Amino acid sequence: MNSRAQRIIAYLLACLGTATVASLIRFESAPEAVVIGYASMVLGLELVAWFTGHEIFTLQALVMLGVAAFRIATHNFFFLHESFSSSLPSSIWAISLLAVGVPLSFLVRKRERSRAISVPGWAAFLFQHPEQPAFFVPVILLTVLLALKMPGGMITLAWGIEGMVLFVLALLAKERSYRLTGVALLMLCLGKIVFWDVWHIDDPRARYSTLIGVGALLLVVSFLYGRNRETLREYL
């Protein structure tokens, strides 16, 4: 048996093992807690991909990331309105676990870039930049969760806090896409205030609190941007 056939068999066995674990989580866990198991699998697969250097585990981590996001969006978010459902804490736990996977994805990226990737061209970007989907999936899920659960004008303030945190993390990670995401979220908050909140929030205190809060966050980000201008130019 040649090396190519051996690798195909090894990959099939790895896929069967991952599918078996995912099936056990799906059928043996409480419906709301399935996403926690899926998110844990993403972390486990990223660790295995980092330790072993086998690209099949990177692929499986990306696939399970999509599966976890789909499950959260179509099941947990759907049942958020039910009073006795545990969908909210399960969603928070799952999104938190996916966020923990972002630093791991940088380790995987370093490993993947150190060798040739034997995958089609359309998939090469994901293999060489797993930190991108690992970042954007939990960010989008958290943004949607805040929109679904936060009351009224607090949505804008919550998005603003999220945007500022993303900007600070982008300074630490030195990732341009992360920084632009934080700034874009803050600009979304500003636009929401001007075109929606000012006209639809009846409580003056809530309206003024939102304006002051988002304004303060923009000032903080502007200060950080000015202090780190030279550093930011290095990875533009």
Describe this structure as you would to a colleague.
By secondary structure, this protein is mainly α. It folds into two domains: 1-149, no CATH class; 153-236. 83% of the residues lie in helices and 0% in strands. It contains ten helices and no strands. It has helices spanning 3-28, 34-52, 55-76, 87-113, 121-128, 131-149, 154-173, 176-200, 204-227, 229-234. Helix 8 runs antiparallel to helix 9 (204-227). The chain is flat.
How many helices in DSSP terms? 10
* Largest sheet report: none
Strand content: under 5%
Poorly predicted runs of 5 or more residues: none
Rg over CA atoms, rounded to whole Å, is 21 Å
Q: What is the number of strand segments?
A: 0
**Residue share in helix:** over 70%
Number of discrete domains: 2
- Tell the overall outline: flat
Q: Given the helix and strand composition, which structural class is it? A: mainly alpha
How are helices and strands ordered from N to C?
HHHHHHHHHH
> pLDDT average, as an integer?
84
**Alpha-carbon distance between the termini?**
49 Å
